[in-house]
């Protein structure tokens, strides 16, 4: 307006050609920002301010597009709602499974569309003090019996406490007084988007229930299976030895060696009584002292 572009004077070279009204200026601004370029309206060399404004609007257009596209992609990439449907049990349990001490926890997917596949990884984290007095973080992987799952129904993840497990030498008292954290990571692929997601949880000693097992959530009907989600967190107290897996294996080895010696001069009827496995004796024992297990075995063999 100051240059006189709207005066329709043919002797004046306008700053923007073919712009004679506010509507024309708005259309030129829209064509500049969207890079349409119909070819009728253009900036001339008459006004440096007009050239500067076109440059600023072009830069501003790129910035706006970047923020809008970035926000949309970030919204699509984040899986907060998807991660909220993956649930870990609040407690982990330690109990006998196939005559072996095992650490168990439960994981479930409570969304109608299920994942393609999932991989579970567990690590035990413990702060260790070296000889120089420095604190370092120690990481040890826990070997899982079922580390690849598809969560059609809630699944109980099992870690067998064997000689390779960092929990091998911990009994009930030692585990409750120990200081460590078990970090559980679940990486899975969604079936709707095909993108990878990750959910994590952790367990400390006060969140590990010794001598418990998870209740069944799967109920068999005539024509279908019913999942009782109310039993997802529920556990039942069961008999389990209070000693560590290391002590249990050692006592079982001693029991088997003793039984071989007794079998040489024993009748069949007496042998059937003594044929009770060491795990069964350990199962009914409620003593905190693992040495009492062998006393129970010796009394049973008399």
Automatic annotation (TrEMBL):
Provide the membrane topology annotation. Multi-pass membrane protein
Q: Which InterPro entries match?
A: Ig_E-set (IPR014756), IRK_C (IPR041647), K_chnl_inward-rec_Kir (IPR016449), K_chnl_inward-rec_Kir5 (IPR008061), K_chnl_inward-rec_Kir_cyto (IPR013518), Kir_TM (IPR040445)
Q: Does the keyword Transmembrane apply?
A: yes
> Where does the Potassium channel inwardly rectifying transmembrane domain start and stop, copy by copy?
2-78
Molecular function in Gene Ontology = inward rectifier potassium channel activity
Q: Which residues form the signal peptide?
A: none
Entry annotated with the keyword Calcium: no
Per the UniProt record, which residue ranges are transmembrane? 49-74
| Compartments reported by the entry | Membrane
Q: What is its main location?
A: membrane
Question: What is the catalytic activity of this protein?
Answer: K(+)(in) = K(+)(out)
Q: What's in the GO CC field?
A: monoatomic ion channel complex; plasma membrane
BP GO annotations: potassium ion import across plasma membrane; regulation of monoatomic ion transmembrane transport
The Inward rectifier potassium channel C-terminal domain, residue ranges: 86-252
Q: Which Pfam families match?
A: IRK, IRK_C
- Family per record: Belongs to the inward rectifier-type potassium channel (TC 1.A.2.1) family.
What's the protein called, per UniProt? Potassium voltage-gated channel subfamily J member 16
């Amino acid at each position: 307006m100051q240059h006189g572009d709207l005066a329709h004077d043919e002797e004046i070279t306008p700053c923007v050609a073919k712009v004679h009204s506010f509507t024309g200026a708005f259309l030129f601004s829209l064509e500049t920002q969207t890079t349409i370029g119909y070819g009728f309206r253009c900036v001339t060399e008459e006004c440096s301010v007009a050239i500067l404004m076109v440059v600023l609007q072009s830069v501003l257009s790129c910035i706006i597009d970047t923020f809008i596209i970035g926000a949309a992609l970030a919204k699509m990439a984040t899986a907060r709602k998807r991660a909220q449907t993956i649930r870990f049990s609040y407690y982990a349990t330690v109990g006998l499974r196939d005559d072996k001490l095992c650490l168990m926890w439960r994981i479930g997917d409570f969304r109608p569309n299920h994942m393609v596949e999932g991989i579970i990884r567990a690590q035990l984290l413990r702060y260790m003090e070296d000889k120089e007095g420095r604190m370092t973080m120690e990481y040890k992987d826990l070997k899982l019996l079922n580390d690849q799952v598809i969560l059609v129904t809630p699944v109980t993840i099992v870690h067998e406490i064997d000689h390779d497990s960092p929990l091998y030498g911990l009994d009930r008292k030692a585990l409750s007084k120990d200081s460590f954290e078990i970090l559980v990571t679940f990486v899975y692929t969604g079936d709707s988007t095909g993108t990878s997601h990750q959910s994590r949880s952790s367990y400390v000693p006060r969140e590990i229930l010794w001598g418990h097992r998870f209740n069944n959530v799967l109920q068999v009907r005539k024509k279908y299976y019913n999942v009782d989600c109310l039993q997802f967190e529920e556990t039942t107290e069961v008999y389990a030895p209070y000693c560590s897996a290391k002590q249990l294996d050692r006592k079982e080895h001693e029991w088997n060696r003793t039984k071989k010696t007794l079998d040489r001069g024993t009748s069949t009827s007496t042998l059937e009584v003594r044929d009770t496995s060491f795990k069964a004796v350990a199962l009914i024992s409620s003593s905190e002292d693992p040495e009492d297990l062998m006393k129970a075995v010796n009394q049973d063999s008399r």
